[in-house]
Structure formats: C-alpha cells, structure tokens
Amino acid sequence: MKEAYVQKQAIIDEIKDKFERAESAVVIDYMGITVEQADAMRKKLREAEVDYTVYKNTLVKRAIAGTEYEKLGEVLEGPSAFAFSYSDATAPARVLNDSIKEFKKMEFKGGFVEGDYYDKDGIVQVASIPSRDVLISKFMGSIQSPIANFARVVKQIAEKDGEGAEA
C-alpha cells in the first residue's frame, strides 16, 4: 500500500516538474490511431524536441491542483496524452495538428502556452503559428530586402556619377 503511494507521488512530482519547466503543454485525446501512426507521430514529436507522455488524469489533476495550470483539469476526461515543449512554445500544437490532419483522428482538448490557457480551438490557432526559427528567418528576409535595394540604388548612382566624371 505504502509502495503504491510512493510510486504515485513520484509520478505526480514528475508531472509537476514538466509543467513548471514547459514553455507549453498541450493535451490531446489520442484514441483511434494505430500503433504505426502513434510511432510516426512520436518520431515527429521527438524531432521537434517535444516530450510526449500518457498520464492518468487523476494524477495530473493532483499535480496541477493549486497551480496556474489547474484550469486544464476541466478537460481531463477520457484518454489524455500530454505534449510538453521546453524551448519552442508552438511545437507541440503544430506537430500534433499535422498528425490530426494526416490521420483524421485524435483531437485537442486544451493546453497552456507561455502561461496562458487555451481551449481546443485556441490550440488550433496556436498550431498555425510558425516555429521561432521560421519567424526569425522571415523577419531577417524582410529587413534584408530593403537594405539590398538601397545598396543597388547607391551603386547605380555611383556608377552614373563615375560616367559623368569621365566625360
């Protein structure tokens, strides 16, 4: 009896730790996918550095009781899987959304992104946000273009002035 309590407490502590360290945590109903589909999804999640685990809802509810994540307890019914990201806040939602579209099964329940709670529709919106790296490269491209155009104009002016000096 005491050993079972110690094991459950260890899992609760693990869950608390994951929530405290995570940039985001997304909960899905994972029912209906095959073992092959689950393996493929887990591989994509690992590549995106997302921690994907199935926990008992009662243990998660105990772990988040009294914390900023307590609202998530409202969606913890039926089978629940949890995807945590510690670096890219949109990665769990984005990768899981791709899997939901591909397999036409599973659905979001809710989640937290950078401390804010989102219901399942909100998580779908988060899933549409590109990764941090993509956003940075788009930003760099957008500021690089005007600089390149300016450099071409200056070069053309310099060449034109150079031609006038020779004459």
Give a quick account of the main beta sheet: strands, pairing sense, barrel closure.
5 strands, antiparallel
Number of extended strands: 5
* End-to-end distance: 100 Å
Helix content: 55-70%
Mean pLDDT: 88
Report on this model:
The chain is α+β, with helices and mostly antiparallel strands and 167 residues long. It folds into 2 domains: 2-129, 2-Layer Sandwich (Alpha-Beta Plaits), CATH 3.30.70.1730; 130-167. It has helices at residues 2-21, 35-47, 57-64, 91-103, 120-127, 132-166; strands at 24-29, 50-54, 81-85, 107-113, 116-119. The chain has a 5-stranded antiparallel β-sheet with strand order 2-3-1-4-5. A hairpin with a 2-residue loop joins strand 4 (107-113) and strand 5 (116-119). Helix 4 packs across helix 5. The longest helix has 35 residues, at 132-166.
SSE inventory with pairings:
Layout: H1 2-21, E1 24-29, H2 35-47, E2 50-54, H3 57-64, E3 81-85, H4 91-103, E4 107-113, E5 116-119, H5 120-127, H6 132-166
Antiparallel strand pairs: 1-3, 1-4, 2-3, 4-5
Structure described in brief:
The protein is α+β, with helices and mostly antiparallel strands. Helix content is 58%, strand content 16%.
